[in-house]
Amino acid sequence: MGDKPNYKETMNLPQTEFPMRASLATREPEWLKFWDEIDIYGKSLEVNEGGPTFILHDGPPYANGHIHMGTAFNKVFKDLIVKYKTMRGYWSPYVPGWDCHGQPIEHQVEKNLGSKGMAETSKAELRALCRDYAMKFVGVQAEEFKRLGVRGDFDNPYLTLNSAYEAGNVRIFKEMYNRGMIHKGSKPIHWCMRCKTALAEAEIEYSDEVSDSIYVKFWFTETPEAFAGSAKKVGVLIWTTTPWTLPANVAVTLADRAAYVGVRIGDEVLVMAEELVESVIETAGIESYELVLGADGEPVRVKGSELSGLKYRQPIHENVEGVVITGDHVELSTGTGAVHTAPGHGDEDYLVGLKFNLPSPMPVLDNGVFDDGAGPFAGMHVNKANPVIVDWLTERGDMLHAGKTDHSYPHCWRCKQPVIFRATEQWFVNMDDAEDGRTALREGALNSIEKVEWIPSWSVNRIRSMVTDRPDWCISRQRAWGVPIPTFTCASCGDTVVSDDIFDAVIHLFETEGADAWFTKEPSEYLPAGTVCGRCGGAELKPEQNIVDVWWESGVSHTSVLEARDELRRPAELYLEGTDQHRGWFQSSLLTSVGAYDEPPFERVLTHGFIVDGDGRKMSKSVGNVVSPHDIIQKSGADIIRLWAAAADYSQDVSISDDILARTSDAYRRMRNTYRFLLSNLFDYTPEMAVDWAEMPEIDRYALVRLADVVERVTKSYDDWKFHQVYHTVFNYCVTDLSSFYLDVLKDRLYSDEVNSVSRRSAQTVLAEILKALVRIMAPILSFTTEEVWQFMPEALRGDAVSVHIAGWPDVEVPAAEAGELREAYATVLEVREAVTKALEDARNAKVVGKSQEAHVTITIQADVAHVLEARGLDALAEMFIVARVTLDIRKACTLCVSVAPAAGEKCPRCWNFREITDEGVCARCAGVLASQ
Ligand SMILES: [Zn+2]
Ligand SMILES: [Zn+2]
Ligand SMILES: [Zn+2]
Questions:
Q1: Closest CA to 204 of 215, 212, 195, 214
Q2: 325 forms bridges with which residues in the sheet?
Q3: Are 70 and 610 in contact (CB under 8 A)?
Q4: Burial 474-502, CB ≥16 within 10 A → b, else e
Q5: Of all helices (H) and strands (E), which one includes residue 321?
Q6: Ligand 2 geometric centre to CA of 586 (Å)
Q7: DSSP letter assigned to residue 440
Q8: Ion ligand 3, residue ranges at CB < 5 A
């Protein structure tokens, strides 16, 4: 034996093919192929056939572009929930959907056609182009979602342009119409002059806009008694920011109880609220004025109510009079306290107009151009008319002051142009009018909100206040790309013609031929023979040309999808979208479901924040802070996006930046290394070698207790929808429990003990349990990596599951009583270990010892703690602290002191521990191992 023996070959060093480098960008597509081949979606349902149901109903993204970070986050989030539920034994089908109709697509197609192309394109042709456009992006997005690892029925998704889906719109319309919840009416609504359509509240964006700010004199045609004889001309002064609405003026509204005074400027007297006189004078830059005084020398004060009923000359139209009224909406913080009222152009004006039975002239056409009703301004676009009207009034001496103001103004979400309020014939869902004895929709929806679980819990306030405050829902749109309002108008008398038979015929038409048929067929071709107007008996019926609001369309998915598909059902267990959907999809789903069925479509609603950059700013191309999912996938892999999404506290806005992604990648590497360590030490292990609990070294039993605790905490976090807790628990477990403690301690046993020894097999028994649990609890999040780990696991540890995603959920059982004792004892041990680790570090820095294995550690400690340590055994402590020897020194006065000295003995050339070296040249343990070989 002249040569130095090669001890390396006598040791059980780790072996695995599982790559250290993740290379997710190239490996993930292979797993996608694998999942396709084994039909993982079909299998995920098969394994839980007959189990409890969990339906996460997908909110449809809009099919008009590539996915962005927000859609990626949302989809991954849904996917991890569905995967978790599947692993917990739930039958959890996931049917992805797309919102395919609506203005953004139509807008794009129009743009592509150009105005000349548009003129030559029929509605049916335009619809076909829109369909192609939508279908293209459904395909693009489906591939992008799949690349993120999202699992679902992508071969058979739901599309709002499918015939059966379109028919669902009519089913709900019929139900709500018959319940008196839908009516046709003229009402001022947000109107985009560029897109020529009504806009819902959800389609409005507010941004700053510079507008006119004018003070206009409306001359009384009969002078108020209080100011009689005060001047030749007496008028009421109004303030407005929309000169173009003056042609539609019919009234001036005053505050009932406020005091109004007469302000003499030159030879004119102008009536305004006393409180606002000073601010008006200042704004208008008037140098001298005086109040009209009474006989007592005091200013004459009149209440608004006393002026009610007076007439004035309409400012634009000759020989037309307007009337003074009073209303609650008059504010005394700005303006003059006298509000120019045009019921066709404002919500409050409309309501007060109804109350006083005022006319509601509407001189603005759908493209924003005045008709003859605007008198001298007919034919002019309202935007062009503003300065012209201002000049015109000034020339006539009716303008006290014309300035500009900067204020927040509603804009169209698509074309970004300022919108106007414009009264038109529209279809409305009534929020408050109920048929006899019936609960009105608003009240029904508010009741339903209380039956739903809202996550996070504060989000209930958001939806509640939105439903409480919302106006009637205008559901008609003057566009082509959508589902028509399923009603008819009588050609002879103009009455609306509907009936159950008519609705049913339309449902049948849409189901069999799709909504396109509405635009290509004559009503006589599909309506029941003999359908006539109920009012006049007219047989010629014209189909409605308006389409329904896209929010209505996606809202009826509870019927068109949940109700219609065999594998789904209504209500769904979960709707999950960004917080903006309290205004959009959550609300339209709720209103249509309560309207038709008196119940909510969902049992719970989870909302998440928006995706923002590292500084909390919204992502935008102009700022240049847009992070694309595609880039991250190419650079780091989809699992990094998935891990980032899981780690986020979604109750607030979710940040993403290079720094955040670097931290996520780092955490990923720690987890991947943990999997690799576990795999590499199980290369010669099979379940038959498992060591029983009772025969295990105590630290192994404690490791199982920790594992059981981690699995329990992780399971609870998933169940509580706190995915960032899952991430933190697993990350800390990998780093603190495993990497810096248990796995570090085990190395000696695993590598150096006899290959078949109970001590080594016991360690492997625990490692196998940890691996089996850790690979499963992270599968919903790290979908690709855990699949890779699964396929590298010894076959016997995998059971019969071909994929980790159908391998079920881990259940680590430990004897409860003993687990309690171990938790308590090891809390103390780990506290001492921390002190020892610190002392060893200091000793190494001071060159007292080299490696920790060379150290003899003396722990000075009080009796009660010493008792806990002694009970573990000094050898076990040495193993846990990875030192040569531990001595306990019990003293009353000392809480916890650690001293480190070089250990006696020599370094064993095989295991590098400091021990007595035997005649064989190695330590006694190693000598025994070598002898057995
Ligand atoms: Zn627009
Ligand atoms: Zn008729
Ligand atoms: Zn040794």
A1: 195
A2: 253
A3: yes
A4: bbbbbbbbbbbbbbbbbeeeeebbbeeeb
A5: strand 321-326
A6: 38
A7: P
A8: 908, 910-911, 923, 926
How far does the centroid of ligand 1 lie from the alpha carbon of residue 164, in Å?
30
Q: For residues 127 and 480, is the Cβ–Cβ distance under 8 A?
A: yes
Going from the C-alpha of 783 to that of each of 35, 39, 508, the distances in angstroms are 11, 15, 43
Residues 6+ apart with CB under 8 A from 796: 686, 687
Cα–Cα dist 860/881, whole Å: 15
Scanning 605-657, the segments in alpha helix (DSSP H) are 629-635, 638-647
* Pairing outcome for strands 302-303 and 259-265: antiparallel
Cα(885) to centroid of ligand 3, in Å? Answer: 14
Contact between 576 and 74 under an 8 Å Cβ cutoff? The reply is yes
Q: Are strands 56-57 and 574-578 parallel, antiparallel or unpaired?
A: parallel
Which bound ligand lies closest to the C-alpha atom of 197?
Answer: 1
With 70 as the cut, is the pLDDT of residue 1 above it?
no
Query: So what's the pLDDT on residue 4?
Result: 65
Percentage of the residues of the chain whose pLDDT score is greater than 90: 86
Q: Is 553 exposed, middle or buried (0-12, 13-18, 19+ CB in 10 A)?
A: buried
> Which ligand ends up closest to the CA of 542?
2
Question: Which are the contacts of 620, defined by CB distance < 8 A and separation ≥ 6?
Answer: 626
How far apart are the CA of 847 and the centre of ligand 3, in A? 24
**pLDDT > 70 in the chain, percent:** 99
pTM: 0.84
Per-residue model confidence as pLDDT tens digits over 558-569: 999 999 999 999
Query: Rounded to the nearest whole angstrom, what is the distance from the C-alpha of residue 416 to the centroid of ligand 1?
Result: 6
367 CA distance to ligand 1 middle (Å): 11
Using DSSP's 3-state secondary structure scheme, residue 530 falls into: coil
Please state, in angstroms and as integers, the Cα–Cα distance from residue 378 to each residue in 190, 279, 425, following that order.
Answer: 22, 35, 21
Q: State the ligand closest to the CA atom of 905.
A: 3
**What 3-state class would DSSP assign to 539?**
coil
